[in-house]
Design goal:
Blueprint lengths: L7 H4 L5 H14 L5 E2 L11 H12 L12 H15 L8 E4 L2 H12 L5 E6 L4 H8 L3 E6 L10 H7 L4 E7 L11 H11 L6 E5 L15 H4 L7 E6 L12 E4 L2 H12 L7 H12 L4 H21 L14 E2 L20 H12 L1 E2 L1 E2 L9 E4 L4 H16 L3
Parallel strand pairs: 1-10, 3-4, 3-5, 5-6, 6-7
Antiparallel strand pairs: 2-8, 7-8, 9-12, 11-12
Helix pairs in contact: 3-11, 4-11, 5-6, 5-10, 7-8, 12-14
Length: 402
């Protein structure tokens, strides 16, 4: 029998580490272990009722057929209205692309624009999928370290030094997955000033956590801060995080018409169109009541504050307070080189996360998956009681190291 050999493209790509952690946690749960999973990047809140009702009504109206490849007109108009209302950005509907999730928006943009040899700058720590999507598109990911001492934000000097004649894109994520770091107007303006010196560089913004910010932080996006970047910026967002609609799979972006048209080609030959019912639900999400956002952010903030406090009380851990999203990215440098109670030598943050799962049944994602070690990511998008118990277990694990 002929042996299957995967493509050369796929050989450059790693499986998602976050999904691997979730799978291992599920296996332990199936064996009866009381695992607390802090690896998943999705809100524990339910989709608001008015959004679910809009989907049900769409089904009853028969909105269950194919749609245009990159979105129904009603959703494109809702996105245009949202960008004007929330971000001060003016687009026409022919500048809007709707896809099956924010991840696919990024994938389609890279597939539509990247050639072999093109470089894509990705601040690290980064969302695990960015580099591999660049590789699948034939490009070269260029990690750019955002140091803890800089609040996990890249500096203008470092960005300037990373740009070469081969640089095609900067992927910019604020608030960040995994660190929760965000850029205020002044910090972002310093970066856009650098980009103005390099007209060949396009900017792909990942604004997915726009509405999940704390302590009076005011969200801004690059094309809003520097209008002259408008023509080479793809502003990406979606409904998954703010509206607790991860399973509905709707992402969207606004950008230059030639890029949007090229992305439509990718979409039409791959996914055909986003789910019709999910699109109508997303219209209701963007156009409807947003009062629930503050209540949920208040809950996230209370969780954040408790988790940061308890992690900083653990031996060998240091945890910064994030501006947004629902993650913390603590350093475990003080634990590296130590030995766990079961005899595991913690040489890396992956060893730390693996031993923590095996010995205390707490699932986190190790920092190397996000391109910056020795750290690990915790998602605090779960209930307060589980978070408190997880932090107690982490403290116990760290105090037991020798």
């Amino acid at each position: 029998m002929t042996e299957f050999v995967q493509s050369e493209t796929l050989s450059r790509v790693k499986p998602s580490p976050t999904l691997a952690v979730s799978q291992k946690a599920r296996e332990l749960k199936d064996r009866g272990v009381d695992v607390i999973g802090l690896g998943a990047g999705e809100p524990d809140f339910d989709t608001p009722d008015h959004i679910k009702e809009a989907a049900i009504e769409a089904i009853r109206r028969g909105e269950t057929k194919y749609t245009a490849a990159d979105g129904i007109p009603e959703l494109k108009q809702a996105i245009v209205d949202k960008l004007r209302r929330d971000n001060g950005l003016s687009y026409d509907t022919n500048q809007i692309s709707v896809t099956t999730g924010g991840k696919y928006t990024i994938f389609a943009a890279l597939m539509a624009s990247v050639n072999p040899g093109d470089e894509v700058i990705i601040p690290a720590p980064y969302w695990v999928s960015y580099p591999d999507m660049v590789k699948m598109a034939g490009g070269t990911p260029v990690p750019l370290e955002a140091r803890a001492e800089d609040g996990f934000r890249i500096t203008p000097e470092a960005l300037d030094a990373a740009i070469t004649p081969k640089t095609k894109w900067l992927i910019f994520n604020s608030p960040s997955n995994p660190s929760g770091a965000a850029y205020d107007a002044a910090q972002l303006k310093a970066l856009t000033d650098v980009l103005m010196k390099h007209p060949q560089v396009f900017v792909l913004t990942d604004d997915m956590y726009e509405h999940i910010v704390y302590d009076d932080f005011e969200f801004v996006t690059p094309a809003q801060i520097e209008p002259e970047l408008y023509g080479r910026t793809l502003t990406m967002n979606g409904v998954s995080k703010a509206y607790a609609m991860t399973g509905w799979r709707i992402g969207y972006a606004a950008g230059p018409v030639p890029l949007i048209n090229a992305m439509r080609k990718v979409i039409s030959q791959s996914t055909s169109n986003p789910c019709s019912v999910s699109q109508w639900a997303s219209v209701a999400a963007l156009n409807g009541d947003h009062s629930f956002l503050q209540q949920r952010n208040d809950a996230f903030k209370a969780r954040r504050d408790m988790v940061v406090r308890m992690l900083n009380e653990a031996d060998g851990l240091e945890c910064l307070t994030p501006d947004g999203a629902f993650y913390v990215y603590p350093s475990c440098a003080g634990c590296i080189g130590k030995i766990s109670k079961s005899g595991t030598i913690l040489n890396t943050d992956e060893d730390f996360a693996s031993a923590l799962l095996e010995e205390e049944a707490v699932a986190v994602v190790f920092g190397a998956a996000f391109g910056l070690s020795p750290f690990f990511r915790i998602s605090y998008a779960t209930d307060m009681e589980s978070l408190k118990e997880a932090c107690i277990r982490i403290q116990r694990f760290c105090s037991g190291l020798s």
